[in-house]
Design goal:
By secondary structure, the chain is of the alpha/beta class. It has 11 helices and 8 strands.
């Protein structure tokens, strides 16, 4: 059985004190009504990682980063290295649709980032997903499969604990629109799982968690978590509200 993972991507929101306040609410919630058999992950802005690490160390809530460079150190102004993150984080989100669309990140660059993360003991959460135009033109399978194969080319994954995949249809992120649970499960089963089998073999594929992301809320989360191939959620807007995020965590338990 794959342990459900509920990850909150706070994106470019919350200063340090606001991040600490939200994390304290979530920590209090888990101390008083702990989620059984669910892994919880927060991915705040870089500026909050140090303080949240101090607050959450020893708790069941883990920390992740929202992005990372494909380099280790050097003259790369504005970038952040896995060496800087691993002190605080256990996960890092890579290939998010906003990084692809707004900042032009390619599958090749994301592949280098994934390798760099693994080389420094960070678990990459590789995001894949199609745009509305790609969906409507019947290219969803082709696009997602390519993102998987190219993004994970020659990546040394030997255990399901080393990698997480997040399927996030771009047209459902922050729009209020969602894929149906059945449609998301179908694409994962027909596209993402076969890519993982090709890359790593059936045994490792069976261990790797695949999350769904795209306007996940407490009232629709349970439907996604009932699906055979969905092992949790990468949550955006709803993760900025302690009650909503806690509701999604509860739905996964």
């Amino acid at each position: 059985m794959r342990i459900p993972l509920i990850a909150g991507n706070w994106k470019m929101n919350l200063n340090e004190q606001q991040a600490v306040t939200l994390a304290r609410k979530l920590l209090w919630s888990q101390q008083h009504a702990p989620a059984r058999g669910v892994e919880i992950l927060l991915c705040p802005p870089f500026t909050a990682l140090s303080q949240l690490h101090k607050l959450l160390v020893g708790s069941q809530i883990k920390l992740g980063a929202q992005n990372m460079a494909d380099q280790v150190k050097g003259a790369f102004t504005g970038e952040i290295s896995p060496v800087m993150l691993v002190e605080f984080c256990s996960y890092v989100i890579l290939g998010h649709s906003e990084r692809r669309a707004i900042y032009g990140e390619t599958n090749d660059l994301i592949n280098r980032k994934v390798k760099n993360a693994l080389a420094h003991s960070l678990v990459p959460i590789l995001c894949v997903g199609e745009t509305l135009e790609e969906k409507e033109s019947g290219k969803a399978h082709e696009v997602v499969y390519s993102q998987m194969i190219e993004g994970l080319k020659e990546v040394p994954v030997y255990s399901g604990e080393q990698l997480v995949v997040a399927y996030e249809p771009v047209w459902a992120i922050g729009t209020g629109r969602t894929a149906t649970a059945e449609d998301a499960n179908s694409l994962i089963a027909a596209t993402i799982r076969p890519a993982l089998v090709r890359l790593f073999g059936e045994g490792v594929n069976a261990q790797i968690r695949v999350l769904y992301g795209g306007s996940v809320k407490p009232d629709n989360a349970r439907g996604f978590f009932r699906q055979s191939e969905i092992d949790g959620a990468l949550v955006g807007g709803a993760s900025l509200d302690a009650e909503s995020f806690s509701g999604i965590i509860e739905a996964a338990g």
